[in-house]
């Protein structure tokens, strides 16, 4: 099993990579959706990833009460400066939540099926792996989205 610091390194590497993309794109492009059915803007993707970290790390693993508007994550927009402040706070909270984790123990809260997590009983370690799974796949999605947006392919808001 990977140690906490190594796990955190890879989580933060994915989050920092996504934060760099939205920062490089600027407010306008970061809030633009590519012209693909149900596509999300880079801003939305990062907001969703912060929701994943908070819910799965904070609620499912650490047992904190978390108010999450998962559907609202997919409607999010705003300034990159504000989002980067949220990124810093989310990373600090995730680090704290990770310290409480008992990887072999059952999760402290069962996620609803609608959150599309793993379809089996989870340990806290499993839930943490799910966080990394989500971050890594969305980081790749954001890289492709960035490339599409930079190529000038957009759709009206």
Give the helix/strand layout.
Blueprint: H1 4-30, H2 42-61, H3 70-73, H4 80-99, H5 124-150
Helix pairs in contact: 1-2, 1-4, 1-5, 2-4, 2-5
Structure overview:
The protein is mainly alpha-helical and 157 residues long. The protein has one domain: Four Helix Bundle (Hemerythrin (Met), subunit A), CATH 1.20.120. The chain is 62% helix and 0% strand. It contains 5 helices and no strands. The chain has helices spanning 4-30, 42-61, 70-73, 80-99, 124-150. α2 packs parallel to α4 and α2 (42-61) runs antiparallel to α5. The mean pLDDT is 93.
Short description:
The chain is mainly α and about 160 residues long. About 60% of the residues lie in helices and about 0% in strands.
Q: Helix coverage percent of residues? A: 55-70%
CATH superfamily placement:
dinb family like domain
Unreliable runs, pLDDT <50, ≥5 residues?
A: none
Provide the CATH topology: Four Helix Bundle (Hemerythrin (Met), subunit A)
CATH architecture: Up-down Bundle
Count of helical regions: 5
How large is the radius of gyration?
A: 16 Å
**Estimated share of beta-strand residues:** under 5%
Total E-strand runs: 0
Query: What class do helices, strands and sheet pairing give?
Result: mainly alpha
